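ARCHIVE CARD
Drawer: 12
Card no.: 0347
Subject: one protein chain, sequence and derived structure
Cross-reference: see card 0346
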Amino acid sequence: MGFLLQLPPPISFFIVSAITTFFALAGLYLVRRKYSAEVLKENHEVAAIIFNAFGLFYGVMLAFVVFVTWSGYSDATRDLEMEANLADDLFHIAKTVPDPAKTIMQRGLLGYVNSVYNDELQQMAKGDIDIHATGMMSELITQFYQIDETSFPNKQIYAEALTRLNNLAEYRRLRIFTGNDTVPPVVWLVLLIGALFTVCFNYLFGMKNIEAQYLITATLTITMSQILFLIFVLDHPFTGASKISFEPLRQVIDTMQKE
């Protein structure tokens, strides 16, 4: 499934919808080939009650999972933006500090942001990152703490610099945590089995106009497959064509390099 994330969204959604719809319609074809509409009509009364109750339950669960994954996607965007903002703030705070402390701070920050943009985010796209994946943050913290407090114009600026440095490390950790899959395998199992049951419930109904039933089944299958794939996309905020924008970090790098 991972390769689908690399494709443009219209193409990946089309592939998922086409495959799932093919199997759904094939199943309907086999059922209608064995059972006539008159035979299936005997199931309508009971099947409709069960289908309505099951559909309501499954719809609520789908909506909840979409909300959770969308929240995680939004949090990943916010964490990256806050990380870029804090790095930029610290870079400008360093302007108030005389050399050599100023140069040490600005070079360390530029090196850190470049490391995140060119290395960490690429590793996160492959799922190979953790909070100890790079030494750039540790190196940056060490450089800051080795700077003499008297190099700063006053204690307030020094304290503010340390606070923002700690916040920068915190948002880096949050970015990595939100980059991990948030939907557990057991939830995926329930979602997929629920989708299968929902589609198969259509086979219990018999319509004289078989083309209409094919259309209804295809519409339901496409809708559900797109929602499930949307959850999969939102669960990988740093991967593929639909990943969050890295533009905030790039803009910060450009600003730092112009100074």
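Annotation on reverse: The two ends are 43 Å apart (CA to CA). The chain is about 80% helix and 0% strand.
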